[in-house]
Write a structure and sequence with these properties.
Chain lengths: ~130, ~120
């Protein structure tokens, strides 16, 4: 689905540097995070213990692994989009802004992938 | 520039209203939750790395001085969630008239404090 006006699409420019898609994905991840966030909060409350064995046993349950991966990806995406808006609002200067945006994206992608990998390693590993 | 009266941002010339407080707070709690997500990421990575790494991280996260941070993130979580629902309702075109926008704002405040207190209490018990 494209929310760009036909004129913008023809000209290939305008203020909409993918803003419509950014706005939409911020909402999609927000809606996903409503149940996922509440699930995660509930799980933290009902976890038998916070020692390594208890946490690993919890992460290894298939339902937990799947929901945890979904939660981590949704958080990473939602956070990346949110931080981007804040940076664009407050960081002035073209170079500094570009560098901050790039650092934020790299950090978000890096940590999200590391967290997903960790969940999968626990789920599949010994 | 000398003596020129330029228009100021509404944040400086309007009397502060609940809607403005909550708007700023949505952004601030969002930023703080991003920091919390970093801790969550490190916690998961440590769990996958083994008992020794996990002991180091959980020693830090479970320490007494970290408790206020956890309560703070709980507050941020419930506020951002409740106010996020408010934002989604606006996106769908509901709740814009001044009376309802203030009522939903105060509802978010009450929900946030009740949920934060209930969660913190349940976490201790």
């Amino acid at each position: 689905m494209s929310l760009m006006t036909p004129l913008n699409r023809v000209l290939g420019l305008g203020t909409a540097k993918g803003a419509a898609e950014h706005w939409w994905l911020q909402r999609v991840t927000a809606v996903a995070l409503l149940p996922l966030g509440l699930w995660f909060a509930y799980e933290l409350l009902t976890l038998p213990g916070f020692d390594h064995a208890s946490v690993v046993a919890w992460v290894r349950e298939p339902a937990t692994s799947i929901l945890l991966v979904l939660f981590v990806v949704a958080v990473g995406y939602h956070s990346s989009l949110g931080i981007q808006v804040v940076v664009e609002d407050y960081v002035t200067g073209k170079g500094l802004r570009a560098a901050t945006l790039m650092a934020s994206t790299l950090a978000h992608v890096g940590l999200t992938i590391a967290a997903v990998f960790s969940v999968l390693k626990i789920a599949f590993g010994s | 520039m000398h003596g020129v009266q330029r228009p100021l941002s509404p944040y400086w010339i309007y009397r502060w209203e609940i809607t403005m407080w909550l708007s700023s707070l949505h952004r601030i709690t969002g930023l703080l939750l991003s920091l919390g997500a970093v801790v969550l990421g490190i916690w998961l990575i440590a769990a996958a790395s083994g008992p020794d790494s996990f002991a180091t991280v959980s020693g830090l996260v479970g320490s007494a001085w970290f408790k206020p941070l956890l309560v703070g993130w709980t507050f941020c979580f419930f506020f951002h969630l409740a106010n996020g629902v408010r934002h989604l309702a606006w996106d769908a075109g509901y709740g814009f008239d001044p009376k309802r926008i203030r009522a939903s704002g105060w509802t978010v405040v009450v929900v946030t404090f009740v949920a934060t207190a209930a969660f913190s209490y349940a976490a201790i018990v």
